[in-house]
Design brief:
It is built from 13 helices and twelve strands. The protein has 330 residues and is α/β, with parallel strands linked by helices. The chain has three domains: 45 residues, lambda repressor-like DNA-binding domains (434 Repressor (Amino-terminal Domain), Orthogonal Bundle); 129 residues, Rossmann fold, CATH 3.40.50; 132 residues, 3-Layer(aba) Sandwich (Rossmann fold), CATH 3.40.50.2300. The strands form two sheets. A six-stranded parallel β-sheet has the order 2-1-3-4-5-11, sandwiched between helices. Strands 7-6-8-9-10-12 form a six-stranded mixed β-sheet, sandwiched between helices. Strand 6, helix 10 and strand 7 form a beta-alpha-beta unit. The N and C termini lie far apart (63 Å).
């Protein structure tokens, strides 16, 4: 392994001089000496010790990214937005998939502390709630930004889930539907709670009664959507002509379940999803859904974290807009 001593020997200078060149020290070094050191570094392929440099510079140029479900196609767009800004600013992302597990969240937080990351981005309010149980995380006061609604005192980037869900259900009501079922996400999800609130507000404003039997819980997965429709159709005498799901993956599962029961979309049951993942444009019928600006969520979150790390003040909440994309399913 090539060491700093090898570089110093080849360049004909001291180890201290090599260190000053690599760390851009303000100590005066002649241009000729600096060039000789850099040429020796390039020729030998020397890589400075990142851990040692981070201790000296008080930064590691690394960011921890906590995801609740890496398999969900909603998240790659967010990660891409974060990564694009991080790359421009010279940061490396350490990705941690929590699987919505409090135990995993605490484990990853310990790892990120040990790695001395400069900051952390959380995606999903549920992940923040899990992190809130980690007393060491709060004590460290690591600069943190959250994507989504959360109870913690961190800057956040979010969308108006209540308003977006309300518009989606209002679209179904405007199309003549009066019996609208709803598949929620996990009860612990702040996102799901807000979307259920929007569903109920849309019904109330239209003068329609809320029927608890029309609301079933899913888990944000296609299987969860499929099983939820099975439970809805299994209730004797239950009638619904439209379905609002809290994400597109559950809508995809719902489409399959409805088809397996011989029901046509949108003629027998209209379906509206949430997120506008790429798959929404390719299922048959194409899915009407709420488009979330996932790339911009990630982009904005990383820019906020960058500003925090540079000592700038940032807004406590940044809200991005959504759009209802009407396709053939409703």
């Amino acid at each position: 392994m090539i060491t700093i001593k090898d570089v110093a020997k080849k360049a004909g200078v001291s180890v201290t001089t090599v260190s000053r060149v690599l760390n851009n020290s303000s100590h005066p070094i002649s241009p000729e000496t600096r060039q000789r050191v850099l040429e020796a570094v390039a020729e030998l392929g020397f890589l400075p010790n990142a851990a040692a440099r981070s201790l000296q510079l008080q930064e590691t140029k690394t960011i921890g990214l906590m995801l609740p479900d890496i398999a969900n196609p909603y998240y790659p767009g967010i990660v891409r937005g974060i990564e694009d800004v991080a790359h421009e600013e010279g940061y490396t992302i350490i990705l941690c998939n929590t699987d919505r597990s409090r135990e995993r969240t605490s484990k990853y937080l310990r790892v990120l502390r040990e790695k001395r990351v400069d900051g952390i981005i959380f995606t999903g309010g549920g992940v923040v709630e899990d992190a809130s149980h980690d007393r060491f995380f709060w004590r460290e006061e690591i600069p943190t930004v959250v994507i989504g609604k959360h109870p913690a005192d961190f800057p956040s980037v979010q969308i108006d889930n209540v308003g977006a869900a309300k518009r989606a259900v209002a679209h179904l009501i405007a199309s003549g539907h009066r019996h609208i079922a709803c598949i929620t996400g996990p009860e612990a999800s702040t996102t799901s709670r807000d979307r259920l609130k929007g569903y109920r507000e849309a019904l109330e404003e239209a003068g329609l009664d809320y029927h608890p039997g029309l609301v079933v819980t899913g888990d944000f997965s296609p299987a969860g959507g499929y099983g939820a429709v099975q439970r809805l159709l299994g209730q004797p005498g239950l009638k619904f002509t439209a379905l609002f799901t809290h994400n597109d993956l559950m809508a995809v599962g719902a489409l399959k379940a409805l088809a397996d029961h011989g029901l046509s979309v949108p003629w027998d049951v209209a379906v509206v999803g949430f997120d506008d993942i790429p798959l929404a444009s390719y299922v048959l019928p194409r899915l009407t859904t709420v488009a979330v600006p996932v790339y911009d969520l990630g982009l904005t979150a990383m820019r906020l974290l960058r500003d925090l790390l540079q000592g700038r003040e940032v807004a406590p909440v940044t809200t991005l807009t959504t759009e209802l994309v009407v396709r053939e399913s409703a």
